[in-house]
């Protein structure tokens, strides 16, 4: 939704959370009011004690249920808002997208990226993701930047996305997770036809080496590109494969070890 004068997006999730929080407070106030009324009309000390105990138990139950179901209630409220304001939302997003284009034409790339990122939190289509990726490619990407990857993954193959993933494999391996590995494997043949496709796949394989879970889940990615890993990445893979002692990944890693690193002192102590 457009935010009036600023032309930016309202934080719709925050608005939905605010409505849920308001309803929860209202429920709590009603409970408190009932307890107070009960106390005013209690006929004995025993009734007062029982009423206080029942009120405390009800409050504890209400707090527990609120804590457990708040995420679901927020999603339901968000869906209601989308249904209620679907036309206004679509119109507002179109206006915001045009505003982002104007900001880009004025030369303010960081602001354009933030605007597209806000729109992307509500609209999930490949065209908008591609716009964000192409804009990111105009920056000198650094490790300390507020970068993201998984929200930009597309359904279809995109050389620009693959190139961006390759950059993330260099500077932010922590952003490469299961969905990214699956995307790369799904489009592996197309990626290999890119000029630096094999290099990107090797970099992604290197990112998989950072966790034992990924090495277990994607052994064939590692088998195919282990020979291209830099020494430090291969050393981690070697230690993992050595502990496994069998299997196709172990066989390939040992073959590469014998060929390239057998006499390397770092591997002798591994």
Secondary structure elements and pairings:
Layout: H1 12-40, H2 45-84, H3 86-105, H4 109-120, H5 126-136, H6 159-171, H7 178-186, H8 188-192, H9 197-208, H10 212-217, H11 219-225, H12 231-244, H13 248-261, H14 265-268
Transmembrane segments: 25-43, 49-66
Keywords: Membrane, Transmembrane, Transmembrane helix
Task: Report on this structure.
- This protein has 270 residues and is mostly helical.
- The chain has three domains: 4-84; 97-139, no CATH class; 145-268.
- Helices cover 73% and strands 0% of the residues.
- The chain is built from 14 helices and no strands.
- It has helices spanning 12-40, 45-84, 86-105, 109-120, 126-136, 159-171, 178-186, 188-192, 197-208, 212-217, 219-225, 231-244, 248-261, 265-268.
- Helix 3 runs antiparallel to helix 4 (109-120), helix 11 (219-225) runs parallel beside helix 13 and helix 12 (231-244) packs across helix 13.
- The protein starts with 11 loop residues before the first helix and ends with a helix.
- The relative contact order is 0.06.
- The model is unreliable at 1-9 (pLDDT under 50).
């Amino acid at each position: 939704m457009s935010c009036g004068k600023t032309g930016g997006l309202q934080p719709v999730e925050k608005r939905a959370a605010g409505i849920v929080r308001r309803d929860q407070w209202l429920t709590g106030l009603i409970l408190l009011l009932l307890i107070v009324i009960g106390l005013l009309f209690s006929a004995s000390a025993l009734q007062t004690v029982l009423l206080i105990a029942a009120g405390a138990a009800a409050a504890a139950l209400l707090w527990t249920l609120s804590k457990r179901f708040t995420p679901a209630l927020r999603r339901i409220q968000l869906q209601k808002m989308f249904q209620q304001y679907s036309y206004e939302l679509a119109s507002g997003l179109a206006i915001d997208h045009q505003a982002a284009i104007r900001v880009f034409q004025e030369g303010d790339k960081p602001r354009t990226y933030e605007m597209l990122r806000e729109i992307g939190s509500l609209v999930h289509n490949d065209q908008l993701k591609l716009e964000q990726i192409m804009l990111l490619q105009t920056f000198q990407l650094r490790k300390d930047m507020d970068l993201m990857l998984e929200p930009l993954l597309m359904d279809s193959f995109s050389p620009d996305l693959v190139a961006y993933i390759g950059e993330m494999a260099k500077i932010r391996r922590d952003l490469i997770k299961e969905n990214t590995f699956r995307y790369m494997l799904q489009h592996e043949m197309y990626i290999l036809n890119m000029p630096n496709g094999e290099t990107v796949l090797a970099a992604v394989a290197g990112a998989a080496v950072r966790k034992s879970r990924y090495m277990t889940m994607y052994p064939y990615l590692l088998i195919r590109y282990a020979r291209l890993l830099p020494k430090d990445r291969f050393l981690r893979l070697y230690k993992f494969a050595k502990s496994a002692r069998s299997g196709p990944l172990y066989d390939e890693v040992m073959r590469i070890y014998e060929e390239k690193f057998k006499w390397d002192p770092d591997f002798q102590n591994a």
